[in-house]
Design a protein that fits this description.
734 residues; alpha/beta; Ubiquitin-like (UB roll); four-stranded mixed β-sheet; 43% helix; globular
Amino acid sequence: MSNFVTIILKESKKREQKKAMLPPSINQLKNQATKLFKIQPPNKIQSIYTTDGVLITSISELSHGMEILVSTQLPDEDFSEGENQVEEAPKSSPRSSQIPTKPKTPISPKQTPPPNSMNSPKFVQPPPVNVSPMFGSKSPKMSVQSSGRQTPVLGQINEPSASTPAVKQPTSGTPGRSPSPMAQNQPPSPRSEEEGQMVRNTSQLAIIQQSTPELEAKESSARRSNSPNAPKRNTVTRDGVEEQIAEILSPDEKERRAMLSCGVDRDLIISSLSENLSGLFSDIMPSNAAATGSSSQKGSSRLGQSAKDDEEQPEVTNETLKTAIRQVPQVMQRFMTQNGNSEITQQAIVQKRLLNHFGEIPRISNALEQHINDQIKNGTFSTLGGFNVNFKTLIVGPRSSGKTTYLKNLAKNVYRRLIASGQYRHTFVFNVDFLQIKESFDDPIKFYNAFMGLALAQAASQRIDFQPYLDMITQYFEKIVQVDTFINLPTKFSLQDDFRATSAVLTELASNIFNAYKKSGSLSIFMTHVVTIPDFIAKAFGYSRVLVIADHIDVADVLVPCNDQLTRDTQNLPIIEFVKLLLEDNAFIAGCQDERHAIEAIDLIADDSTDILTGTDIVSVINSDLDETHSSEIWFKLQVAGQTPNVLLRCEDCGGCPGFLARWDVIISMAQQYIIEEHKDKNSKKLRERKLALITKIRELAALVFAEEGDFGTINPYPGKINDFEIVQNVRNE
């Protein structure tokens, strides 16, 4: 049932050989070989070769019975790849060669202007630039002050460029300099202020464009670095707005500037809204006051009281409305946070209720979990809208080999992905185990009630607001096939605003069921409408697709008889044909009891039947649980009546089936306790009891592992009775 290879240690002079079962990946085979040859860390198997010396890189290159060589040394290809990477590393450097650099200008010595020429256009300076360390680094940080003067930077006075008009800057208000008497008596003209501002902006741009060697080194390193912690360049835009100012702005001002950069004037919108709302309030308030005055003309006391009430009413102004409008984003943010928390809670409830339909889900090994995740990747696809299900899978395997365990864990992981991606709002999950409703197969009405009850119960699990009406709607659909006149949905449900569209679809479904049962008299028509119940439930609650989880579908390959109401058909019909109608147009994950029976049942049986075998992925549980946690240190030598020699029962005989390996783990645990008790006292009563319980478990597993399945689920039992066993320590750990 499993594939084995012979492993030879390349470094061993005795050419030691071990047998190992083929795992799913080449790394697992290396780990297994490391344990078999008991190689002590830090050494381990690094490479695998054929007997001809060809390097093996994939598990698909191995076959049953093949001899391979293993080595603790890295293959030659790994060293060559590392050398190539080292050689190519300088070629993959960032695009520093493409970044143009400014020519370095020598720093001129400090120039001191003559005292009489301080106010000349030549020495009108832009704001100073301070160079300071940035977070402890040696590269300088440049900041622009708002003063009208420029202080020398690193011993240099920067003069305006030749293209800058030499306009005299007013010196009034400049700190550290006494204005001239003429400047004190003569007010500055608007033209001079504009020209002075032009000079300042132009000087700022000129000073930013200059670069010292330290600043150039910092800028080039920032361009080459892809790290998010790389130092930011200090730049000033052409509008004269410094980026450093944004760091100390309030969140409200940052939001206003961000919207303004996108062409949206937030202040203008708020002003417009406040003016419109204030006009609306001004139109409403006088009419209310007039109505109050006309209704209170009976006495002066009422007039006085009305005037007093009007005076006490708060006045709605533009500033009040602006303040209220500014509070709207904060309120919406709190609302969205609370809504998100409630959605997370709802997702947890939905997942818990859906998983409750499966009952207890056993824990599985890491290898089986990885195998299931691979099947999910093959059966789903991701789009811009999220995670979509495209399953058409039939899980097969020997009897009691863990097919139901595999199906439950597969469905659980699919549920989690649907919830994580938000697609559970668009996917209706219908779970049915035909083995649990097998008793309803002898009557079409019993089958209808069981099928309808499952669909409505799972709709209530996914739609929490439908839960209070579940019993009411279930009783309504049970009553539909009992009355002679069609009745409408209960008004307590149909008049709810949240379920008006749902009520229309459910009414249509009830009408179809009633007409098919009471008027058509055909079993075929009635059963066809019954299996379309999940599709109508999904449509009623706004789901766009259906995922069917059906276990033991081969159990439904039985005939359903006609009753007194359905007499139009002259023969009984197989339920599996109607189940295939449900699976044909929807995604499904199906399990079975007998694999050969299930494959024949979903195939084209007759000319007018449905074929869903074409396009269905057949997934076997054999070799799905090749995990190292299942112990292979103990074997059992079985003494079978009438057979010699004895038969060995090993972990490899389970074939990697999760159901068989779960029983094997229990047997290993019991065997370890038996060995401990045997060392204490070989003749104790407790030891005999442990041996009796252990041989019972061994007989159950041996009957499943060594049995051969016959036609349609019949099992040819293991010939001979297991009378005794002997525990053999697998010293070689094969």
